[in-house]
Write a structure and sequence with these properties.
Blueprint: H1 6-15, H2 17-23, H3 29-37, E1 42-43, E2 49-50, H4 52-74, E3 85-86, H5 96-102, E4 106-107, H6 111-125
Parallel strand pairs: 3-4
Antiparallel strand pairs: 1-2
Helix pairs in contact: 1-4
């Protein structure tokens, strides 16, 4: 699996041999993403099947490749930090949020949008003009 965000995890689930065996082809990434995000792990609406076991198997690989390295990269600031937060879609994944909290890292409730909101705020502070409404 390539190193990356949640898309890499979804891609790995879609290409998992058990998914291909069940479906006869790679899984639909949007169906997988939606089922992970809503914690149902159901592939398909009618006669859907549960793929939580595939999620858990691929999640272990993703944690080793992505999450562990991100936590390690931030470890040097831990002694001088009063708090640690996690942003991005990965911080909202089932199981991952709990793992982060065990490491005293607080996943933000709207972590998926935190990067975009921060960039927007920085652009406005630097004098950027916008026609978009501020929705926070």
């Amino acid at each position: 699996m390539s190193v990356g965000g949640v898309s890499a995890l979804v891609d790995a689930i879609a290409k998992n041999s058990l998914m291909i065996q069940r479906l006869g082809h790679e899984g639909d990434r949007e169906v997988i993403r939606r089922a992970v995000e809503n914690h149902s792990f159901r592939y398909g609406l009618v006669n859907g099947f549960d793929f939580e076991h595939v999620y858990r198997a691929e999640l272990k690989v993703w944690i080793s490749a992505v999450l562990r390295s991100a936590i390690k990269a931030g470890a040097k600031w831990a002694p001088t930090s009063t708090a640690a937060i996690a942003i991005g879609g990965g911080s909202q994944l089932p199981i991952v949020s709990e793992l982060l909290q065990q490491q005293n890292i607080k996943p933000l409730s709207r972590g998926v949008w935190s990067n975009a909101h921060g960039l927007y705020t920085a652009a406005v502070m630097l004098g950027g003009k916008t026609n978009a409404r501020n929705t926070h």
